[in-house]
Design goal:
There is one protein chain. This protein is mainly β. The protein is built from two helices and six strands; from the N terminus they run E-E-H-E-E-E-H-E. It has a six-stranded antiparallel barrel. It is globular. The model has no long low-confidence stretch (mean pLDDT 96).
């Protein structure tokens, strides 16, 4: 079963980091380094490269998001995780 775990928000900086609005009660598990998340209704995958807290939000760098332009392009994407 797929569940929504977050929504990609605004780009942060020029290196492709994005703010993520959480929709899960297990952010440390769902957004752990190396975790692969999907896109609701799409085929894109997002691999968590790094995570850090900033002003009450998580800033996440995904391997597939190389720069600010790419980060802006994925804004609004609903992130999903597969659970049993």
């Amino acid at each position: 079963m797929e569940i929504i775990v977050g929504v990609i928000g605004r780009a942060h900086g020029v290196a492709g980091e994005v703010a993520v609005d959480l929709r899960t009660d297990e952010p440390e598990r769902r957004f752990a380094r190396g975790q692969v998340l999907g896109e609701e209704g799409g085929s894109r995958l997002f691999t968590v490269r790094s995570v850090r807290a900033h002003s009450g939000r998580l800033l996440i760098k995904f391997a597939e998001v190389a720069d600010r332009a790419a980060a802006e392009a994925v804004s609004g994407t609903l992130l999903t995780a597969t659970v049993e």
